[in-house]
Design goal:
By secondary structure, this protein is an alpha+beta fold. It is built from 6 helices and 6 strands, in the order ααβββαααβββα.
Length: 180
């Protein structure tokens, strides 16, 4: 998957050149029609937990703000000064971790995931984000997204596909139990 993002080069080269904007979304399942799991970034000591696509999108934005890549082009707006101050403090919370191996960082979370999604945020323009997404549902190609809303729709589609797989699996298991 990473080789497609760095055509003609070794996949490991890409990981070390531009890993700040690449996040691994480990979806552990769906509960009450909401995806849940962890967002893993090489630059953070701990993954960011999410429940629902809105928390996932906000988590991706918070990771971008924390690691400082990609830079946003406009100042975000908030309804309260408290939330604005919390957001501004993100870049001061965690420092990038340079000594960890990518596999060491990812493996514990990827092994528990039912679906793994690679999201690369290329730009944060007009108070939104643009980039590309890759998962088994999209096949071997990356799909570009032009806004956080478009990314949200894609993630909901992945969630619906995951729920369909789980329903099919449960139906097959019930039929096997009845046939015994």
């Amino acid at each position: 998957m990473l080789e497609e993002m760095n055509p003609g080069g070794y996949a490991g080269d890409f990981i070390y050149q531009d890993r700040a904007s690449v996040m691994l979304v480990c979806i552990n399942g769906c509960h009450e029609d909401m995806l849940y799991g962890n967002i893993v970034s090489y630059y953070l000591a701990e993954p960011v937990y999410f429940k629902g696509t809105s928390q996932l999108i906000l988590g991706i934005d918070q990771i971008c703000e924390t690691v400082g890549a990609p830079m946003r082009t406009v100042e975000p707006r908030f309804l309260s000064a408290m939330r604005e101050n919390q957001y501004r403090e993100l870049s001061k919370i965690q420092k990038p971790i340079n000594s960890r191996d990518a596999a060491e960082c990812i493996a514990p979370y990827a092994s528990k995931a039912k679906e793994i999604v690679i999201i690369q945020v290329l730009f944060r323009q007009n108070a939104s984000m643009q980039g590309r997404i890759h998962c088994t549902y999209t096949g071997r190609t990356f799909m570009s997204f032009r806004s956080a809303l478009e990314l949200m729709r894609m993630l909901e589609e992945i969630g619906a596909n995951l729920q369909g797989k789980e329903r099919t699996k449960n139906t097959v298991e019930k039929e096997e139990l009845q046939n015994v």
